[in-house]
Each structure stands twice: as structure tokens, then as C-alpha cells.
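Hi there,

I know you've been waiting on this one. I reran it after we fixed the sequence typo, so this is the corrected version. Both the input and the resulting structure follow.
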Amino acid sequence: MGRKLPPDKLTLMTGDDESQTTKTIQLQDGRKLGYAEYCALHGRPLLHFHGWPGSRLEARLVAEPAARAGVRLIGVDRPGMGLSDFMPGRTILDWVDDVVELVDALGQDRFAIEGISSGGVYAIACAYKIPHRLTACSIISGMGPFEAGLEGMKFRNRSALIVAKHTPWLLRPLLWGIMGRYRHDQSKINALLLKMDRELPAPDRKLFLNPEVRQHLAAATKEAFRQGTRGLAYDGRLLTQPWGFRLGDITCNNIYLWHGVLDVDVPVSMARFVADAIPDCRARFFPQDGHISVPYTYPEEIWATMDFC
């Protein structure tokens, strides 16, 4: 069980201390891996894998409920994003080795993970490769493999994935034109996110109209472009290629999936495909929720179901 924090400690543990959100370790191959720690440093560790585009700072969105639950929340940058060095030629399964090095450096034997959106792919990879190290794995608004189909996905996301799949050399200039050119100006990213709300279902639109939520999302997105578009473009291409393992071969027996039926960023059909393919996956679908509203609205319920807090 996570240690509950007293109310007077919550503000100090929710990510406002830059020294806690700009951490790095050096991996065995010499690369730097960036991460951020939120909340209870002596609580049970939960690694948060961000979306696309995203960064370690995305975990800030659920820092306050994590503080209440006594969860040691750790957001991690994937290679080429945020503070993590680019890794040429990497695969999705290579990410698992980076995660193991991080938790070993933090002195943790077993730990839980949650992957949001594209981060769900990397959570699934961990469930496949290191089930013995995981106390639980949650896929939240998570992507499925390309063969699951893109029906129901909003035009912007569908177009980016089709480019990543069939003409990956175009993805870097596409990302630059959409958002990368604003990577030094968080206010412009904030304004762009506000414009994007028109494509979203009501529960997500409500969150995007919340200035505090949008500010956190803008900060995480800006950090994703810290090194430019190379890491993001490479990550996007990986998402559309074969992942290197079969979902049916996953043996993790504590894996959960949470998805909003109204999601247009990652359609619920993708989530149903994943839930059906992974043995013993426990899935819950929220009829009145979208993409962002699930991880933002239900974190404590998700963690409690994971037997984590």
C-alpha cells in the first residue's frame, strides 16, 4: 500500500520543484535518460509512459491524486524526447531495457507501469518482456497495432500515422509545421491546443478549456520538441511497424486496459482489439469519456483497481 501523505505535504510533492522534474541517469551505452519524480518519494513506484507527442512532464496531470494516494509517480522521456538522448535504430522492445536500467538505478526490484495513448504500446512491451518485474500494468487510452485499423480516429491523427507508415521521411517536416516550430514558445503551443479542442468529444473539450490542464499539456508537449522532431518522428514510425512480439504471447497476469468509448484520438476499436488479443487482460470501457478524460478523471480508481493504492 502507498503511504498516505498529510495535506500540508501535498504542494511540495506535486512537481513544482524543478530539481525533481529534470532528473537524468546515464545508461550503460552512454545515453542519457530523462525522468521526473512526483509525490511520495518513499511510496510504491509507478512509471508513467507518455503519449505522442509527449514527455516526462505529462505525469504532472495526475500528480495531485498521486500525492493523496502516496504513489511515487515517475514520468520517463522516451529516446529523442525531453531529456533522453536519441537512440538510432531502436526498437519498441529496446525501451524495456532502458526502463530496467532506470528502476535498477532507483533501487526498485518490482514496480507498476501505466502507458497513456502511444505510451500504452511501451507498457505492453514491458508486460511482454519483463512480467516478473511488474506488480501491475495499465494501458490507458492506449494505441493498438496498425492492423487494428484507424476507423473512428480524428483526421489529424489518422493522417500522421498514415504518413509514418507509408512515407516516414515526410513525418519530420509535418511535425515541424504543425507544432515543432513553436517549440520555444509555450504560449503558442497552448493556443494551438485550444484550437484543437474543436475536434474533440465534449469530455475532452471540457478539459482542454481548463487553463490549468491545458498549461500542463502545453508544457509536456513543448518538452517533447526540446531536441527537435527527430525523436518524435522515429517514435511515430515505430508505432506503425510490427512491434516485435505477439500480443497473445503476453504472460503478465496483472494487466488492465481503460478506454473511453468517445475517444477520437485512439478509437475504442483499437482498444477492443488489444483487450481481446492479450490473455487475461481486464478491460473497462467508459461510455461517456474520451481520450484525456479517462486518465485525468479516474487515476485513483485505476490505481486502486491495480491494487496499488
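Quick highlight: Residues 1-14 have pLDDT under 50 and may be disordered.

Best,
R. S.
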